[in-house]
Amino acid sequence: MNVIKKLRGEGSALPPKPSIRNIVLAGIGGFITIAILAGLNASLVATLILGSFGASCVLVFGFPDAPFSQPRNVVAGHFLSSLIGLLCLTLFGAEWWSVSIAVGLAISLMMLTRTVHPPAGSNPVIVFLAQPGWDFLYLPTLSGAVIIILIALVYNNISRKERYPKYW
């Protein structure tokens, strides 16, 4: 019965609504970033975009002060999660249980290294679906995450009075 009561939640109020300015700026930041990644993706004939990068944009432009949005978390979180995905795929093959192990290990490793970036938690699943080679670590994972951060550094420091990042 206690679990049923917990499912009702605490009854806390919703978080405050962001200002229209912040909402618009976050949307523009995400648009610019994905446009650049998609444009480079098309012109370089190299994969530079992952589905998880859209969620990364939500964090770095919508919530740039959050720990999950800091450069160290974005870059290392994506890299470590893709690495774990590739290791598990290589060692265990594409099995339902091996992708589960990969996601669990990615979460644990991000927590251990203090580089948690929630969108990166989907990278092992992406690895198992696409079954890429080891170059996936660099194109698109590392290069795409670095491009996101480079854009976020410029955009967030131009569009806001607060500094970005909070830490490296």
TrEMBL record:
Looking at the UniProt entry, the stretches that span the membrane are: 20-37, 44-63, 75-92, 137-158
Q: Where is the HPP transmembrane region domain?
A: 15-165
Q: Which domain of life is it from?
A: Bacteria
Keywords of this entry = Membrane, Transmembrane, Transmembrane helix
> What InterPro entries does UniProt report for this protein, alphabetically?
HPP (IPR007065), TM_HPP (IPR058581)
Q: What is this protein called?
A: HPP family protein
